[in-house]
Design goal:
By secondary structure, the chain is α/β, with parallel strands linked by helices. It contains eight helices and eleven strands. Helix content is about 40%, strand content about 25%. The strands form three sheets. Strands 3, 4, 5, 6, 9, 10 and 11 form a seven-stranded mixed beta sheet that branches. The chain has a two-stranded antiparallel ribbon with strand order 1-2. Strands 7-8 form a two-stranded parallel sheet. Helix 5 packs across helix 8.
Length: about 300
């Protein structure tokens, strides 16, 4: 069976439609369909079947698509081994991130990369309905989860943990709780809150605070933009959950951060990749730089 045709079957399994495969592989839909028919003849089994106006994989097609992933991983490992012998971690690597992870990690990563290796970056809304699906378009996807809700589970992706990013309670300077070493949910009842938009991950932590304290939080405003939330806190208009490593809390006189105890209050940041792309020497080199930068960020921050 032809490797390139196997890859088209794998793309159909991942992307779900002939049209999407055609766009991703710069072919016409008819050309993709023709190549899949040839693959069926090579395999001697029906790999796809009609479903409405589109095609879906048969059981045999899904099994062969999984094998196509194994083939792609093996080829990528062989290429990476050859690149290591040539000491050739070069080429382009594409990466997509959500904004705060990019703010923390990417400037330092790009500065640390050697000549000949180009990192092409993009950012997306972290509340995109299916962030892990971007692995079909990018070599590396920086994603996050809160409280162990893993949107990438069961997808066959390579997952590399990078860091846990604490979410602290942000207070205006001079607030009565500012002298505490840390705060508990019961300390936060009766405060005016600047919350996140409905459905944002931070909202789950706010609900956990309410459940632990046995009372509702008073929300004065809700925003999607974290910088806007911080500006309201700095102005003394309320308190909020604030990411420790990307807040204004490191600037004395602007914002005070306090760890929250009694409720899980952090998000895990990971790198997601298709398993064959994770084998590329250039991708592994970028991952090494991401890990190093994540460690540097964590070591350089303390709660004020």
């Amino acid at each position: 069976m032809d490797v390139q045709r196997l890859e088209l079957l794998r793309e159909l399994a991942d992307r779900g439609s002939i049209t999407a495969v055609a766009l991703a592989t710069h072919r016409t839909p008819s050309a993709v369909s023709q190549q899949l028919k040839v693959l069926e003849r090579e395999a001697g089994l029906q790999l796809t079947q009609r479903h409405g106006r589109g095609l879906v994989l048969t059981d045999a097609g899904r099994a062969l698509a999984r094998s196509a992933t194994d083939v792609a991983v093996s080829l990528a490992k062989a290429t990476a081994l050859w690149d290591e012998f040539r000491n050739n971690a070069t080429g382009d690597v594409s990466l997509v991130t959500f904004p705060t992870a990019g703010q923390m990690l990417l400037p330092g990563v790009i500065k640390d990369l050697g000549p000949g290796l180009v990192l092409n970056c993009a950012d997306e809304d972290p509340e995109l309905s299916d962030f892990p699906a971007l692995t079909a378009e990018y070599d590396i996807v920086l994603a996050h989860s809160i409280s162990g809700q893993l949107s990438w589970a069961g997808r066959g992706l390579t997952v590399v943990p990078l860091m846990n990013k604490p979410l602290d309670v942000g207070l205006p300077v001079g607030h009565p709780l500012a002298d505490r070493a840390w705060v508990r949910p019961s300390d936060l009842i009766g405060e005016t809150w600047i919350g996140v938009s409905d459905g944002y991950p931070f909202e789950r932590i706010l609900h956990a605070i309410e459940q632990e304290a046995g009372a509702h939080l008073s929300m004065a405003q809700r925003f999607a933009d974290l910088a806007l939330i911080e500006s309201f806190v700095i102005a003394g208009l309320g308190i909020a959950l604030v990411p420790r490593y990307t807040s204004s809390g490191g600037q004395p006189g602007r914002l005070v951060l306090k760890p929250l105890r009694g409720v899980e209050s952090q998000r895990q940041i990971v790198a997601l990749m298709r398993p064959d792309r994770a084998e590329r020497l250039a991708v592994r080199t970028v991952l090494g730089a991401l890990r190093a930068q994540a460690l540097q960020v964590q070591h350089s921050h303390t709660v004020k």
